[in-house]
Design a protein that fits this description.
Distance between the termini: 9 Å
Shape: extended
Helix content: over 70%
Radius of gyration: 21 Å
Keywords: Membrane, Transmembrane, Transmembrane helix
Largest sheet: none
Structural class: mainly alpha
Number of helices: 4
């Protein structure tokens, strides 16, 4: 086995069953969510512009930006073995999503200085989460590199 080569699960079997099960759970979750939305919201038509805007923002802005950044990071980390690069990319995706969720909360604190609503320091919490993500990503990358190096010597 060469360093950095991906391991592939055999076709069919438990992997396919697990994927079907996960997909079924996802479909059921979407159905339950949509049904709940129709029950709870008195005028669902008012949500359509917001939902359309969310799709446009995701597919038109977030995904292309993430793909561009991913391609830049993938090329910049070409000196790393492939599996380690995959770990780094995963860590960056987690950090990006945490930032996307955390920055609005941190910025809102200055707009609405109500201590009963904003009782946490969201900027500091985001920093700690990003630090934890970086540490876990580095540890996972080191373990992956050592495992691959040991496997290539066998």
């Amino acid at each position: 086995m060469t360093t950095g080569s991906p391991r592939r699960a055999p076709a069919g079997g438990a992997t396919s069953k697990a994927r079907v099960l996960i997909g079924a759970v996802g479909v059921v979750s979407v159905i339950v969510g949509v049904a709940g939305m129709w029950r709870e919201v008195t005028l669902p038509a008012e949500l359509l512009p917001w939902l359309a805007g969310a799709v446009v923002a995701h597919d038109g802005v977030l995904v292309p930006l993430e793909l561009l950044l991913g391609a830049v990071v993938w090329r910049a980390s070409a000196v790393l073995p492939r599996r380690v690069r995959q770990v780094v990319m995963g860590g960056l995706m987690v950090a990006g999503m945490l930032t996307l969720l955390g920055v609005p909360l941190a910025l809102r604190r200055n707009v609405y200085p109500n201590p009963t609503v904003n009782h946490q320091d969201y900027a500091a919490n985001l920093g700690w989460l990003l630090l934890a993500t970086a540490v876990v990503t580095m540890l996972t990358a080191v373990v992956t590199a050592r495992y691959d190096r040991a496997a290539s010597k066998r």
